Amino acid sequence: MSLHGVSGHPEPPNPTDSSSPSTPKMKISPKLNRWSMGRALRSGVKLDRPIHRIYNTHCRQASEPKQKEDDKKTSTIDVETTAGKSIYLISDGTGWTAEHSVNAALGQFEDFSVNRGSSVNTHLFSWVEDEDKLAEIIKQAAKEEAMCFYTLANPSMAKSAKQACDQWGVLSVDILGPIIEGIASHLGVSPSGLTRGAPGRVKTLNDAYFKRIEAIEFTIKQDDGTLPENLSKADIVLVGVSRTGKTPLSTYIAQKGYKVANVPFVMGVEPPRTLFEVEPRKVFALKIQLVVLQAIRRTRVKTLGVDTEAENNYSGIDLVRKELDFASRIYAENPGWAVIDVTNKAIEETAAVIMRLYHDDGRDSSTSVPRISKRY
Amino acid sequence: MSLHGVSGHPEPPNPTDSSSPSTPKMKISPKLNRWSMGRALRSGVKLDRPIHRIYNTHCRQASEPKQKEDDKKTSTIDVETTAGKSIYLISDGTGWTAEHSVNAALGQFEDFSVNRGSSVNTHLFSWVEDEDKLAEIIKQAAKEEAMCFYTLANPSMAKSAKQACDQWGVLSVDILGPIIEGIASHLGVSPSGLTRGAPGRVKTLNDAYFKRIEAIEFTIKQDDGTLPENLSKADIVLVGVSRTGKTPLSTYIAQKGYKVANVPFVMGVEPPRTLFEVEPRKVFALKIQLVVLQAIRRTRVKTLGVDTEAENNYSGIDLVRKELDFASRIYAENPGWAVIDVTNKAIEETAAVIMRLYHDDGRDSSTSVPRISKRY
């Protein structure tokens, strides 16, 4: 969903907008060398800056009462402080590393939109493998007053990105470069410089690949207590009442190559016998605060649109409490199971807690802090 | 699986090993202030460095023929070059950002283990939220001659990590710091400095959370062509013959909040009518090279342990070819479907290609390069 070009809303006349007929249209050919664009910009070709962006932001809010042309023009400063801030993510591969890292960092600015009434918009550009495209994107970033993060395996592309950003006054951060340099120095070897899709890169159909596929397929087949006879084959077994997040957690962990089974605990229904034959250190019991679970179940009920009686049986406070008590009793009878509180936790967080406990098997006496180790 | 403390193998005598009775044992109390440890190290307390690590590496290779004590001592240099290199990942949150970024960077060193007969071992330490634990881990990194990557939201922890690594001669890279600084400068606001589990952090049970859960649950229910009547509700529909990776791809994309359905194409079986009623731009048709598919199916057959006739029907070259031709014909009849080659591609790569096409709806005319935009 791009800020730009959301059509169907007439654009107000905009003297600095390059697409307006009143100013000469700037040619943005993908073939145009980035240096000539840089020169053009520095020599005074006007960039369509804030106002362009502000109008676009207005266009997105279709429900907002229509302002008069004059109001818009006079309220430029107000509007500017409430407009969205753009962050460009540029990658010559999938772009997931840039997205993941910037997402994590944005967690440090959660109050931004609340306190400023503003928003942050990320724009991910993946598979950017030639200099012309790179230059075009960074030019556009300058126009939108965006900042750029990039993950470019090809060192010459990374250098170009840095230079272009510097020349056009775009704040930029190289995410991958310092990590690659660190590893190169540590291993004493040079990086390949090959992008993800490059022919020279090692192919991915190795044992780890097949193991991961198998884990995902196993996990899907095991979902929601199906095939209890296979519980012994799972690496990890999750138990918990309905809406504690067993399914999303299972698939998340499965992506990391673990076979996960999950068993729902339902009030008054005895869990399958095979669950108690599983090695206790593999079983993770999910618990959650009563009121939070009730709220989640109410949301669920709304989505499903079920009748009132069914709703009460599912999200009525007394019944939710009884079901949680029922689960707690079974947890208490199995002290070898780790009990994890999932209240207000994101899937990634609970997964990290489980992974840490799963790998903390007490064999590592070198530090008192558990570690998850992998070999490459 | 840590290199250290793999018990059950008698350790050879080691003059520089601190656990050996011949040298005074170094006290590693979690309470011991990291600065006093630093001072102790600098003032000449010997660290149990390479030899310790090499012996442990030997211990792990149980199948390796036993060397005599003397051989080991004289072959120190050889052994050292073939020993594993350790990378520590330290986080005060889940650690997934560190793992993801370093994993991506390691893709630049794929030849390392092949050409050097060596391996890289990563060790992830998550939820490291106090200075004592941090100091203990970095001290251990110095012992193992590891390098450290860290993602520490708390600025005072990040500073301590840097100082401790510098003092103990551990190469270190701050992954999150430069990204947070960049965003802070761009938005003109200070980061919260709160770790993921901190009470002040915004809770995660928002609309996006529920949307994601719903997407994952939808995707699992739709897997493998079940419920064709629901295809119209999917954001994305994947089609392809068996073993083109539809299931892992579906769950991977679902984690990003998209409802994915997949429909297997089986030789001679007409796909469900509802598939052809789905908006073509939502349908992604997977293709794969014949020989690669055959190899994957052979691996699959081995795992399942099915009989020879079934094997021939599934992985025999003629039948695989016919099935691929059957799928290709249907693809050709539906020119609105994007055809994606998954040959030798990792799940993440194919997902990135699909995401890019899915979001490239031609509405964004600001650049010729498609973008995936998100609002925070």
Which two protein chains have the largest interface (Cβ within 8 Å of the partner's Cβ), and how many residues from each?
A-B, 123 and 125 residues
Low-confidence stretches of chain A: 1-82
CATH architecture verdict of the largest domain in chain A: 3-Layer(aba) Sandwich
Main structural class of chain A = alpha/beta
Mean pLDDT across the residues of chain A is 78
Spatial strand order of the main sheet of chain A: 2-1-3-4
Helix content of chain A: 40-55%
Ends of chain A: how far apart?
Answer: 38 Å
SSE topology string of chain A: HHHHEHHEHEHEHHEHEEHHHEHE
Assembly state (oligomeric): homodimer
User: Count of helical segments of chain A?
Assistant: 15
CATH class of the largest domain in chain A: Alpha Beta
Q: How would the global form of chain A be characterised?
A: globular
Instruction: Write down the CATH topology of the largest domain in chain A.
Output: Rossmann fold
Largest sheet of chain A: 4 strands, parallel
Strand content of chain A: 5-15%
Number of domains of chain A: 2
Using the CA coordinates, give the radius of gyration of chain A.
27 Å
How many β-strands of chain A, per DSSP?
Answer: 9
